[in-house]
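Entry:
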Amino acid sequence: MSARAGIVVTGTEVLTGRVVDRNGPWCSEQLRAIGVDHESTVVVGDRPADILAALRWLASEGCSLIITSGGLGPTADDLTATVVGEFQQRTMVVDQPLHSRITAILERLTARWPTVDQESIAAGNLKQATIPEGATILEPVGTAPGLVVPPAEGSSGPTVVVLPGPPSELVPMWQAAAQTEPFIEATAGRVPIEQSMLRLFGIPESEIAATLRSARAAGIGIDELEITTCLRRGEIEIVTRFVPEQQQTYDDFAEFVASSHADTLFSVDGTTIDQQLAALLTGPPLRTIAVAESCTGGLVAARLTESPGASTYLRGGFVAYSNEAKVSLLAVPAALLEEHGAVSEEVAVALAEGARSALDAYVGVGVTGIAGPGGGTEDKPVGLVWCAVSLASGELSVRKLQLPGSRQLIRDRTTTVVLHMTARLLREETE
């Protein structure tokens, strides 16, 4: 059996949703990459009793390693180090060399604020330098040190890696933590874990459930694999985890999915539509793109710029929300708007061609719709969206959508559809 680990994410701001947790998923992926089985992630507030209960529960579940994030700051609610010391039955002590290093860091940081309360700074400094006796110190990236805390001498249980909350501090400390002797000992039973992802678009999640049943009936040992499906950004992700000995079983499963969903499977290696479109635009040949958006309000342009190197192919974009902007910025004929309305096939095409012409791009994208919650009519209800992709070669793709859900979901789903439309049209052009 592989070594097992748990994650405890602390912070009332995370528990209540004011801050989205990024540390738990990131740490989970790092654990998988080194062959450690991730048991569970527990999110708790800043109450010491809750943090301690989470540590004890993960220990009872057989975790040999526990990762905590958050609660290492200088304020009174940052109590993770103290709680971990209690959990590991280790006395809290002031580490004088660490105290000196934090002092030096704080002196540099507070030099620009001469009126800062030095007494409070000193108290916070002392608090951050107070650590469980016998802990391995991970050098601070900010002011908070990380810690690797094994059980006290003569005790058994998991090693606890204590990391700060800010991802910019946590991430650099991970490698240092993984190289410590207690960490290596706690993960001695690690087993390599492979992870592969298939992505599909234009298919309901219920069809994947049926495909899994069919694969099992066909004699493929999918019960040997850890398969999860997720609907994200309008796409279906099939994530499969397995040990190397199960590679052939996974290959058989992936081939079965590919043969069953040849029209909707667009990624067999985990690449996103964003990455695939970026590769198509980059070429060769290089093909530039410009976008004109109404209801999506710049989300298409934002998705395009998420890919590194987008400046090589993205000429720019327009958020032409009003009819006046559509006319003045993109040369959409006023008569066209009057005759067909802003949410129409004709205007979507005019937006795409207007963006392409205005910025001298090879690809033009136009989006117009009614995202809601108001503004819909019987003829044009909320969720109606027209999307158009125009190429300088004369190729044109237009799609009418009628999407359910909230304003956010409609806008997000539309953006994904537009990226797929653009990628498909470019692929067809080169075939």
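The two ends are 48 Å apart (CA to CA).
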